[in-house]
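User: quick one, fold this
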Amino acid sequence: MQIVLPFRHLLYPGDVDWTHEGYRFAWRMMLNDKAVGMRLFVVDRTTSEVRPIDPRPWLTPLQQDYLGQDPDLLVQYTQFVAKELQESKELYVEVRAQDLVSLNARRPQLPVDTDVDLTAQEPRAESLAATLDQAADRATMGSPA
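Assistant:
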């Protein structure tokens, strides 16, 4: 088990450095360094008004950093925010992210499409994986900063 588990990332589609599938409990943990700059926005479904979200009331600085690095966490968090706004303020919103990520000091990339409603995605969904694969392709074509 200790030999098989670290190689499970080979069973998932896409680049594990971007998708993080099979990343935990693997030997790859210290291979990458990501710098993150992220902004989240809610779009009111009835008025189309766009407003920024401040994640600080819910997340610590370390959690915010991980949020921008891991697309699975990003989807889960945006679904949480949409549910909180619906329950507390009766707002029905889409949540979108502008997430700039630099992998190993390369040029920053947008791993998630800024026009995608992340609340409609399922963690590890094929559509999100395709978006991440496109970002990984762009990152490998870019030159190091």
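User: anything notable?
Assistant: Residues 5-141 form one domain.
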